[in-house]
Amino acid sequence: MMNKNAISLLAAFLLMIILSVVSIRVGAVSVPFKEIWLTLQTQPNKSFFIVHELRMPRVAVAILAGIGLSVGGVILQSVLRNPLASPDVIGLTKGAGFLAAAVLFLFPASPSYWLPLAALAGAFLAFALLLLLTRRLTLPPATLALVGIAIGAAFGAGTQYLIVKHPRDISLALLWLAGSLWGRNWHDVWTLLPWIVILLPAAWLSFSKLNVLQFNDMTGASLGLNIFRERFLLILLAVALAGICVSAVGAIGFVGLLAPHIARSLAGPRHQRLIPLAALIGADLMLLGDFLGRIIIAPREVPAGIMTAVIGAPYFVYLLRRERRMRSTKQA
Amino acid sequence: MISSSHKGKQNRPRFLLFLFSVLVALLAIGILCSLKWGQAPVSWGALWDAVSYRTHDKTSLYIQTLRLPRALLACMVGVQLALAGLLTQLLVKNPLASPHILGINAGAAFAVVFGLVAFADLSMMSTVAFAFFGAAGGAALVLSLAGTSRNSYVRMALAGITIHFLLSALTEGLIILNQETTDSMIFWLVGSVSQAAWKDVQLLLPFFAAGLILAFFMLPSFKLLQVDEEISIGIGGRLSVIRIVGMLLVLLLAGSAVALCGPIGFVCLIVPHIARSLVGGRLTVLLPLTGLLGGVLLVYADFVSRFIAFPYESPVGLLTSAIGAAFFIYLARRNGGAAA
Predict the structure, then answer these.
(1) Residue A32 covered by a domain
(2) CATH number for the B70-339 domain, one of 3.40.50.1860, 2.60.40.1180, 1.10.3470.10, 3.40.309.10?
(3) Chain A: closest CA distance from residue B176 (Å)
(4) Of A89, A170, A178, which has the smallest distance from its Cβ to B161's Cβ?
(5) A128 C-beta neighbours (distance < 10 Å), count
(6) What angle do CA B106, B110, B114 make, to 5 degrees?
(7) What values do phi and psi take at A293, rounded to 5?
(8) CATH number for the domain including A219?
(9) What is the C-alpha separation between B115 and B121, in angstroms, rounded?
(10) Is the confidence metric ipTM above 0.95 for this complex?
(11) How far is it, in rounded angstroms, from Cα A223 to Cα A210?
(12) Which residues contact A151 (CB under 8 A, 6 or more apart)?
């Protein structure tokens, strides 16, 4: 078992490296490997600007955001005990999208760092509403998920209102709402990195609680866990991870849903293995989505969020159907 | 669903008569309001002249060609969506089900946007055809994901919302990549009746009529869906046939409504619940009441949505989504305990 786990971790890691290199190499202007190597050694060459200022930060943001979204997804799926839960479904991304759109439309002259802050505030606003409407998360997990869906729908309606009200400058907002890595720079990397560095270990260290919480409440309580407090803290952690990432890359969907699924089918339900693998797979998915989005109709770009949905959804349908079949054969 | 203490009262013919006449009166008042107030003020006299087609000046033309078809279309779409919602809830035995959750709205929306991008000069009729196929595709996807077993309604809601996200991501992608042709789509995507003209009413009318007639004739069969599966098979009902016809009816009602007015959310979820709480589960009463309530709700929602950002129009879908989300939370909190 240990071996298989190590192999899948290694494979996911190698895939990440390969995808990063390919993302830097290929694009509207392709860069030879030699110049990438020179740039990595910070030696001047004619592709230095493209590699160092455009593609490297983009790859870094993709990796970090992929990690954050997928780990947030792992936590939510385990705590809510629902394989279909994810930051999008709980309404976090819609909340982030609503406040981000509000800043884009109502205060178009505001400085650029307002946008991620607003998105983060939106994610937490959605979470606060969820707290308020579910008696501080003490309702059954299924109800939490449903209330999350409704909160997402309400925020979605708010965003649509803003879009309809200001039809002239919707392109930026639509790009953001779909989720895109276009134009990300080192500044974005440096705002994202510390959060991931702090929150990712925090998530990993709570693996034992997650292992218990994915069963029913009784088991957790009998093992001496303060269920409601732990659930609150863990969901807060997931909200922080996902909210930060959404604020950096926009409302990218399906990564937070899909990466945990793939990881679970490879590593099983134990979170000490699941979380690292899900993080790497999330990074892979983001890189892949961004890369495909850049080359598919180059020199124009398809937003990464749309590509992740396009790659993710068919696989997701396959996963769910397989799971259903397995369950029905088990019952029969 | 049915609180037993009210059961006797709910089925009294006098109560029903009262209920229906109040609703018809409300509908008439709603349509009247929607004709009278809007961007341009119209006096009662001018309104009367216009509706009775006696004068032909600018004001009456305005009422005859803009406000009248709009009010009628809102009413028809409301009826169709509400009935589609009721039928979906019957078919999948899931109180949270609605064409919206089943991916029908998002599927139709995606197909229509795709049609407009792929074939620039799409006729109205082929828009409706696209909407049908999209609606059927969305529903098939969600149902195949969620299964139709009765206990899986949280799963269905999540599967539906996931497919909804997928389809709206694809729709957004099409819009971002083809901004020249899709600029006008944004308004439609939220769900709106503000662009209504007589030709829309004319186009919708056959679907409206066919849907109502089919629903009426299928009414005895649909009753079999309310009882246990074993019982209805024992009575001799061919459940699979009934289900297929019911699903086609839902697609007919919801698909044609979405093709014309965009995915107006949540009407289909709320109205059947309100109707059921008023008269209980007796389908002979419930079905017409749901339709009527749907018409009333959408006419009023359309009327109110004109004043959200007066003098600019706001799509009616915004208002219904906002009300619907609140209602959904209420339902989830009430039913969630049983579901977990």
Answers:
(1) no
(2) 1.10.3470.10
(3) 7
(4) A89
(5) 14
(6) 175
(7) -60, -30
(8) 1.10.3470.10
(9) 9
(10) no
(11) 13
(12) A90, A91, A94, A95, A126, A129, A130, A133, B325, B329
User: CB distance B324–A84 less than 8 Å?
Assistant: no
Residues on chain B touching A149 (C-beta within 8 angstroms):
157-158, 161, 328, 332
Q: What is the structure's pLDDT at B180?
A: 67
Kindly state whether residue A234 falls inside one of the protein's structural domains.
yes
B322/A313 touch (CB, cutoff 8 Å), yes or no: no
Query: Which residue has tokens 């990464």?
Result: A304
Amino acid symbol at A237: L
The length of chain B in residues reads: 340
pLDDT for A301-331, tens place per residue? 888 888 888 888 777 777 767 766 766 665 5
Between CA B257 and CA A198 the distance in angstroms is 50
What is the C-alpha to C-alpha distance for residues B175 and B113, in angstroms, rounded to an integer? 8
Please return the burial class of B213, using the count of CB atoms within 10 Å of its CB with bins 0-12, 13-18 and 19+. Answer: exposed
CA–CA separation, A246 vs A307, rounded Å? 16
Task: State pLDDT tens for residues B132-183.
Answer: 899 999 888 888 877 655 556 677 777 887 888 888 888 888 887 777 666 6
- Amino acid symbol at A219: T
Let me know if A93 is exposed, middle or buried by CB neighbors in 10 A (0-12, 13-18, 19+). Answer: buried
* Local structure of A292: helix, strand or coil: helix
> In which element (H, E) is residue B296 found?
helix B283-305
On whether the CB atoms of residues A318 and A193 are closer than 8 A, the answer is no
pTM of this prediction?
A: 0.81
Nearest to A98 by CA among B321, B308, B320: B321
Q: Do B158 and A171 touch (CB under 8 A)?
A: no
User: From CA B169, how far away is CA A248, in angstroms rounded?
Assistant: 18
Q: Name which of B177, B323, B317 is nearest B258 in CA terms.
A: B317
